[in-house]
Every structure is written in structure tokens, then in C-alpha cells.
Amino acid sequence: MAHTELDLRERRAIEDMLNAKMAVSKIATHLGRHRSAIYREIKRNHFADGELPYLSGYYGVNAQRNASDRRARRRKLIRLDDLRAHVVDRLIEGWTPEQIAGRLGHDNQPIRVSHETIYAYVYSAEGQSAQLARYLPSRRKKRLPRYARRRRGQVFPPERSIHQRPDHVKTRTRFGDWEGDLMIFEKKTGNMNVASLVERKTRYAVLFRNNNRSSKHVMTSILNVLEPLPQPARKSITFDRGFEFRDWRRLKTEIGTESWFCDPQAPWQKGSVEELNKRARRYLPRDTQVAALTNRNMKAICDRLNETPRKCLGWRTPTEVFREEMMKLR
């Protein structure tokens, strides 16, 4: 059954039944709606008057007006072709919704929208049909309501912020500092993804497949890649704040590797692995059937990436520089 918005008749009925002290579950049954939809409707459109608290409550007409206002804001990107084209172009270029919204005034756009409106459009039916979510750094399938999102402070504490990372990691003067990310593919290809790791100083790349995005599975795979290396070759690794990396503490406890995390929606702070992903997409486009790739296929791609000379390495290859650094550790 297709989703339909509550209408004024239903909202007035909710008001009457609430005044009659009817339970929310019974209201939902009476209207043929799920009880969570009714709970959400009451919470979202509850009117509160700080000066006259006896007027606080749920009012159907007021709720209908609030809903219409929200739809009007959300629909700007559907009604206004020029604004929508501008926003979509920036998304494709890799801008975040917050950056797009913040720049609208500088880009001479007569109409402004908030980053929340852009997110709402990206995850709307129109945005999903255009697969706009794939251009977002976080690449989630859907977005939770603003006030229902889980806090990540405990998962990625402030002391693990990239701003606390030692300067010698930033300057690439030390060997053994890595960056990590996941390469995501079209939904129709299945749940598999490809993890990408790159050593910052040598640009040496490692790619491997994952069956899914669970943190336990991803971290186990990363441990299997890094553990054979001597400790000086795996001092630290920098991730974004995706929940596939929330088991980062295992790296410290099991192999002694420190973890650092970029700011939210700031993929450029791990530019080495973003550049690696861009190069790897030549061989692993988004419609790749990852399940059909063998270990030999993955190794061939890694070899091609690592055996290509790089200007930043004085036209040496990542393999040559990585091997040289490993020889120094013996």
C-alpha cells in the first residue's frame, strides 16, 4: 500500500479522540494507520504555549498548517527547476548539502534552502530515483529524522579526532600511517563492497572485498591485512565516521594501531584514500559485480595501482617506495 500523508479530516479526528482520552493505539486502529504514525504525528505537531500552558495540546487545523508548511519547504527542489539543477550539479561534484546550502547566496541563487531540505530531497522518491544518495560522503540508504539520529560521541570520542592526530602524520614524514575507506557499489549488485587502504607516505594501496558493511566483518578484514606487517609499518590509520569503523578499538588492543577520525562530512581530510578510490574506480565502476571478482582479480588491480609511477614520489612507484621503507625496518 502506498504511503499517504494524513489529511485534515484525520487530524481533526485525532484531536477529537485525544480530547476523549482515547488511547493512541485505538486511534490508530480507528483511522487504519500504524500506531507509530499517530505517535509521530502528535509529537511533531503538538502545540505548546509557554505563557498559556492550558492552551497546549494537539489541534487538527494547526497540525495541518504545520504539515503544509513543511511540504512547501521540502518541495522547493521539486518546483524550482533551476535551483534543483544547481543543487544536483554540486552534489555530483562532491559537495555536501551543508556546503551547497551555505554557498547559495554567493552563487547568486535567488531562493535559499537549508541543508535539511537538500537531504530531504535526496532521500525523497524523486531523489532516490536519480540515485542522488550515492554522491553523499556517508552514502546511507536512508536518513533518520533529525531528532532520531544516534549520537556518535561515544563511538568516536573527541580525543580520536583528526585534529588530535600528530603533525608528523599530516606531513607524511613517517612511514606506517594509513588511511581507510569503503567503496560502495550499486544496490542491484548485492551487499558486497571493497575496502581500500593506503599508506600515506608511500601511497601503497591495498584493496579487498567484504561480504557486507558490518563493523565486525570490516575490522576483522583490516586486522588480517595489517597484522602481518611489523609494528612500525602499521602505526596508525585514519577513517571517516562511518559506523562500519565503530569497532576501531580492536586495532589498538589486538595489533597496537592507533585510529583517528575525520570530522563529520569531511572526506577531504583523508585525501590519500579518496584519491585511491578515484583511481580504483577506473577498474571498479559502481555497477561492478563484486561477488564475481576473485582474489586474483583484486591482486591484479592492486598491482596495477602500485606499479604505476607517481609524480609525488619522484616518478617512482608505490611498490618501490614501500619496499624501500620496509627494508629500513629490518
Automatic annotation (TrEMBL):
One of its GO terms (molecular function) is nucleic acid binding. The keyword Ubl conjugation does not apply. GO terms for cellular component: cytosol. The keyword Disulfide bond does not apply. GO terms for biological process: DNA integration; DNA recombination; transposition. Keywords: DNA recombination. Residues 162-326 form the Integrase catalytic domain. InterPro entries: Integrase_cat-core, IS30-like_HTH, RNaseH-like_sf, RNaseH_sf, Transposase-Integrase, Transposase_IS30-like. Gene3D superfamilies: Ribonuclease H-like superfamily/Ribonuclease H. NCBIfam families: transpos_IS30 (NF033563). This is Integrase core domain protein. It comes from Pelagimonas phthalicica. The lineage of its organism: Bacteria, Pseudomonadati, Pseudomonadota, Alphaproteobacteria, Rhodobacterales.
